[in-house]
Amino acid sequence: MRELQAEIIKALGVKSNIDPMKEFRRSVELLKNYLQTTPLKTYVLGVSGGQDSTLAGKMAAVAVDELRQETGDVSYQYVAVRLPYNEQSDEADALQAIEWQAADRTIRVNIEAATEAAVAELKQNDLTISDFNKGNIKARQRMIAQYGVAGALNGAVIGTDHAAEAVTGFYTKFGDGAADIMPLYRLDKRQGRAILQALDAPKNLYLKVPTADLEENRPALPDEIALGVTYDQIDDYLEGQTVDTTAAETIEKWYLRTKHKRYGAVNAFSQWWQA
Ligand SMILES: Nc1ncnc2c1ncn2[C@@H]1O[C@H](COP(=O)(O)OP(=O)(O)OC[C@H]2O[C@@H]([n+]3cccc(C(=O)O)c3)[C@H](O)[C@@H]2O)[C@@H](O)[C@H]1O
Ligand SMILES: Nc1ncnc2c1ncn2[C@@H]1O[C@H](COP(=O)(O)OP(=O)(O)OP(=O)(O)O)[C@@H](O)[C@H]1O
Ligand SMILES: [Mg+2]
Q1: Cα 1 to ligand 1 centroid, rounded to whole Å
Q2: Domains and CATH numbers, the chain
């Protein structure tokens, strides 16, 4: 195994083999335990219609249902948040995911107006805002909306970052990367898929092409095109298998380049950025 590969696997805590239901329970227990250590009663999660939020939302729904039963406190709830930028082409998938999860409540916030207002104000200052940059602003508007819901409903925000995204830093810093709890962290993409399969989730939700869908010039751009490496290759790498050198180098390039996302803001005591 490559030296950096072993270091990454250890840092992200990825297993080469999982028992899907055991990992599901581990995440559900984490969600239950965390809420009980806080004054909070609600889990808040943006549900896009993609694989990751389909899984994380199911974990949240099961966690709060068990908490209600075990404690008798009926105020525990899971709130799914629809966050379209105007119309969303795969809206039906998002609604299907929420129904399958059996969310206690669904909230809808269209992020288009807030995004456009932010971009327009920035442009007043003689700045060019690229489509790519605007995509990250959309992800941050989704973060603002979810924390708005959390603030109103005594909630904690769930993030869907998992090992295959953490290794590539494929998320918006302080956008979808910002959350209170990350139940998928440690799992790679195929492990998340295996859990959904074990849970008998609708196949179309876990077999669909992963996309951040943030760019207007390249709608529904597959993550694998953006990254230049496939999830199968990333998962193989994370599970300690040998992948071809080009793929391994691409993954490692992303890992090293996005180190700043896996640490807090630099201060006078931090040293990670000097290495
Ligand atoms: N050393 C460093 N090199 C580069 N940037 C550094 C930095 N240290 C701090 N920074 C800060 O980080 C910022 C760049 O990071 P960031 O804003 O995240 O931007 P960036 O990493 O350039 O873009 C985010 C990527 O994640 C993808 N994404 C986003 C959201 C969801 C998903 C998904 O899978 O669904 C994927 C998105 O398509 C895009 O490819 C800079 O503006 C700077 O403030
Ligand atoms: N249109 C949206 N509506 C609600 N939440 C969204 C939307 N787009 C992104 N999100 C939130 O941002 C997270 C990151 O997006 P990401 O694309 O990585 O995950 P996903 O869409 O759930 O799964 P996949 O990666 O397979 O597409 C989502 O899991 C979800 O919580
Ligand atoms: Mg997606």
Answers
A1: 28
A2: 18-221 (3.40.50.620)
For 86, how many CA atoms within 13 A lie in the half-sphere containing its CB? 7
Ligand 2: which of 52, 109, 173 to mutate, judged by most atoms within 8 Å of the beta carbon? Answer: 52
Ligand 1 mutation target, pool 170, 225, 253, most atoms within 8 A of CB: 170
**Out of 13-17, 47-51, 253-257, 271-275, which region has the weakest mean confidence (pLDDT)?**
271-275
What would the pLDDT profile of 171-191 be if each residue is shown by its tens digit?
999 999 999 999 999 999 999
ipTM value for the complex:
0.99
- Span 60-106, pLDDT tens digits: 999 999 999 999 999 999 999 999 999 999 999 999 999 999 999 99
Identify any residues that bridge with 77 across adjacent strands, giving them in sequence order: 42
pTM of the full predicted structure? 0.98
Residues touching ligand 2 (Cβ under 6 Å) are 45-48, 50-53, 82-84, 88, 142, 160, 176, 210-212
Number of CB atoms found within 10 A of residue 85's CB:
20
